[in-house]
Structures are given as structure tokens and as C-alpha cells.
Amino acid sequence: MRLSFFTREVFDALIILMMLIGAVLAARRLRQDFTRPMPKRPEDLT
Question: Considering the entire predicted model, what is its pTM?
Fold first, then answer.
């Protein structure tokens, strides 16, 4: 079979890798949101 390398350990490693990538991307986005300059007046929100 062509997918014989696809063992339980490989599948678990892929899931953990995807979770880590998602956490890194979420952290980058949160950092961008929290470090952007805030508008000076409420009228600037639009």
C-alpha cells in the first residue's frame, strides 16, 4: 500500500504540527491587532 508510512505516530505528529502552526498564526494576528495605533477621535473609527 502506498500509505504504509502513515502510522498513528505520523498522524499524531501532523495534528500537533497543524495546531502549532495555528497557534503561531493566531499569536501573530493578536500582536498585530494590539500594537496598531489607536484612532485619536471617535470620528476616526469610520
Answer: 0.67
